[in-house]
Write a structure and sequence with these properties.
Order of helices and strands: HHHHHHHHHHH
Distance between the termini: 55 Å
CATH architecture of the largest domain: Alpha Horseshoe
Helix content: 55-70%
Shape: elongated
Radius of gyration: 21 Å
CATH class of the largest domain: Mainly Alpha
Number of strands: 0
Strand content: under 5%
CATH topology of the largest domain: Leucine-rich Repeat Variant
Number of domains: 2
CATH superfamily of the largest domain: Leucine-rich Repeat Variant
């Protein structure tokens, strides 16, 4: 049966959660499809989506993995099930799981991702590599945030210059402290560097 034959009822998330418990795999698949259309609103269904990563029907597992991938950092609670799903028989499930783990950027999954990468096919290895890079960037960003508060102005300046070379979306978490340093830092060069970063962000 193709999804084109399904009737879309535009149900609310609560109804779709209930439908995911239906014994009929096609009903579960329809529920997954409708949840996917909800975008970030599907976060309410995260507990059952975690469970559906183990569904015996392939298309339900694929759909659940895809929705969690879209939820990204909001799906942190799903990390245990995502790690387990790296062993799924289906390559599309594993690919979505790898992307989701990258978006969540859970540092404690690094070794698991590396191990999975050693035995994966090329298309999934690529996603696992991206995930590991994203986790590494998160770790590096944490260090830079700490350095922005260092007593030595040379360390602070180094941190600001490092941030200035990063992509806009990646430095988003540092904006509050950058603004704080702009207002409080006694080093003019640091303040000018911060202004340059924030100007690129069109914030000032």
């Amino acid at each position: 049966m193709s999804l084109k034959t399904f009737k879309l009822d535009n149900k609310n998330v609560e109804d779709l959660i209930e439908q995911l418990e239906n014994e009929d795999p096609y009903e579960r698949r329809l529920a997954i499809w409708e949840l996917d259309r909800k975008g970030k609103k599907a976060i309410e269904a995260l507990p059952i989506l975690r469970n559906k990563l183990k569904d015996n029907y392939l298309w339900v597992r694929r759909g659940a993995a895809k929705i969690i991938e879209v939820l990204g950092e909001e799906a942190t609670e799903a990390i245990p099930e995502l790690v387990e799903a790296l062993e799924d028989d289906d390559i599309e499930v594993r690919k979505s799981v790898a992307i989701a783990l990258g978006k969540i950027r859970a540092e404690d999954t690094t070794e698991v991702l590396r191990e999975a990468k050693r035995k994966e096919k090329a298309i999934v290895r690529e996603k696992l590599s991206i995930a590991l890079t994203q986790i590494g960037e998160k770790r590096a960003l944490k260090k830079l945030i700490v350095s922005l508060k260092d007593e030595d102005h040379r360390i602070r300046l180094w941190a600001v210059k490092a941030l200035s070379k990063m992509e806009r979306e990646k430095i988003e978490p540092t904006k509050p402290i950058l603004i704080e340093r702009l207002l409080k830092d006694n080093n003019e060069q640091i303040r000018e560097e911060i202004k340059s970063i924030l100007y690129k962000e069109r914030k000032i």
